[in-house]
């Protein structure tokens, strides 16, 4: 044992004792540690991210007596859970399932979510799924015990489930605190209740604190000691005597990171829940910097679930499927428009940056996304498909009952109108439209489509009975580029959520849960909740 | 010619739109609307637009003085045409004449199609239901011929004798294509199936 090692272990013993119960605030620098770090604050468990995984981790750790600090880089809690529809897919035969005579058990949950018949289950790590299945019922009761309320109406079976397992949480009762009010963002009720409970139980939530580094004894060896954070322009260090939990919510918003799995996912693709949340891969990158590995990466490109979605609210920057920022939303000043909700894909066609159709607009499958992301002919941009624009006319707008004026649309790069199609193409100017759309090409595309409508047959892409010509002025172009959603792969962990390094060894005192955790392809909240609890429990019990 | 003179004779671009194209019966007279737009938002009233079948001018019109509603400056004309005697899809084009030296514009052309149908002889009434409930605003279509259902789920279309594929469309519903032979007035009931939203989080209020 070196002198340095001896000093570190002495500190760990003292830190653990001091940290039990309330959070220890060090104030001035108190401890050099193995790397000469000055610790500004100390807790037993430090959690990065106050979302659907971080909050249950905090509650669980506090219930086991550990002191807890959560750092959250956003100005409020919740992460993407705040904007979720609140659909919690927990089964196993919990009380609410029993109330509706749904006969379920943990084994059935496991079998469903490792089924070879479904792309949302066949690639998952079965060890993780087994643990998930076994903790479904206890997680449901955990949610009830911490104030979460459910609407008593089962939904399903959906995804890989063979039984109805989805119950929706009740939306938070204060619209101003919902972030996206009036749009059934019932996940707000989940995360607000959990945050309320976490605070009551003594967890300290530090908002606007951005984790910038996970501190390990040596760059890629030894224990994890804590994290470095930035807040108000200042850098400080937070000591974690029992462990650091990564609950940062995934990587979808990080263009460089997501392209490790799919090089097509270039900068023009927005991420669901921006600008409230950016899934910036902060946790993954910080962990990989100290030796962590990824896991089950095939899931990310398995063409299943909601990893990529169509833009449903066109003509605005952020038009994810079920999410709209109304004008009283906290996000509206950034979103700038609510978008035009497409009810019938027959009312539009979609074209690429060169004014050409690329697929059946009504198709919701990955065939559509593959076509949208295909090489568009842009010699200066070989990856990604470039921007996609919805093109429609005055009749289409009338059928959809759209008001094509702000705040419904954002004319600053996301929506255009013109008297003719050629003029419309010339007006499209976007940070992602690298060259002017040729007016002749758009005019020709629409003329050809109109001939398909006249004949009732789409000879190019087999759109089911093309119904409406695009001919009556004015004409419109609305941003409709696909949106990226679920992060489906991430850091490798064992079933206790301990992060594994590149050599298959546990990184001591480092845990991960939620969308930053690799190995389980399930869409939505349940896996984040279950593994968040497990992470909090494992870290709190850590005596190493 | 001086540089000042050169600036004054800048030629503006022109683009065209063609709309309200009906589905006429063979041999019928019908009309379309043709609009022209100057890239410099010049008033184009009284200018001539022509409809061509190949290289032959088959109709012409004069743009009016008022732009089409809700446009910045699309000057338009209603042009009357004669449908051919044979049913089928006819490809035509429109051309804008650029012949005003005081306000020079480049000429422009645009193509469009017209479906010519056989003269209708019979009425097909279609009722669209979903689980016994009438479906309003469903589109009933047989080739180029179409109609929308009313509150009772009914739509009527006039057809010539022949064989057709009956297609019913409404977003959120699915229905098989139904082959149908028209020999006399007829009635068909189509039972459509509601299709759930694809996105599990989707809750639509629109």
Summarize the structure in words.
The complex is a heterodimer of chains A (544) and B (206). Chain A contains 15 helices and 22 strands. Chain A has 544 residues and is α+β, with helices and mostly antiparallel strands. In chain A, the strands form 6 sheets. In chain A, strands 1, 2, 3, 6, 7, 8, 9, 21 and 22 form a 9-stranded mixed sheet that branches. In chain A, helix 2 links the parallel strand 2 and strand 3. In chain A, helix 2 (54-63) runs parallel beside helix 7 (187-200), helix 4 runs antiparallel to helix 5 and helix 13 (421-427) crosses helix 14 (439-455). Residues 1-22 and 25-33 of chain A have low confidence and may be disordered. Chain B is mainly β. Chain B folds into 2 domains: 3-116, Immunoglobulin-like; 122-194, Carboxypeptidase-like, regulatory domain (Immunoglobulin-like). Mean pLDDT of chain B is 89; it is low at 202-206.
Short summary:
Chain A has 544 residues and is α+β, with helices and mostly antiparallel strands. Helix content of chain A is 26%, strand content 18%. Chain A has 15 helices and 22 strands.
Low-confidence stretches of chain B: 202-206
Overall morphology of chain B: elongated
| Number of helices in the DSSP assignment of chain B | 1
Number of strands of chain A: 22
Using the coordinates shown, work out and report the CATH topology of the largest domain in chain B: Immunoglobulin-like
The end-to-end distance of chain A, rounded to whole angstroms, is 17 Å
The radius of gyration over CA of chain A amounts to 25 Å
Task: Give the tally of structural domains of chain B.
Answer: 2
Here the CATH topology of the largest domain in chain A equals FAD/NAD(P)-binding domain
Number of beta strands of chain B: 17
Spans of chain A of 5+ residues with little confidence (pLDDT < 50)? 1-22, 25-33
What would CATH call the architecture of the largest domain in chain B?
Sandwich
CATH C-level class of the largest domain in chain A: Alpha Beta
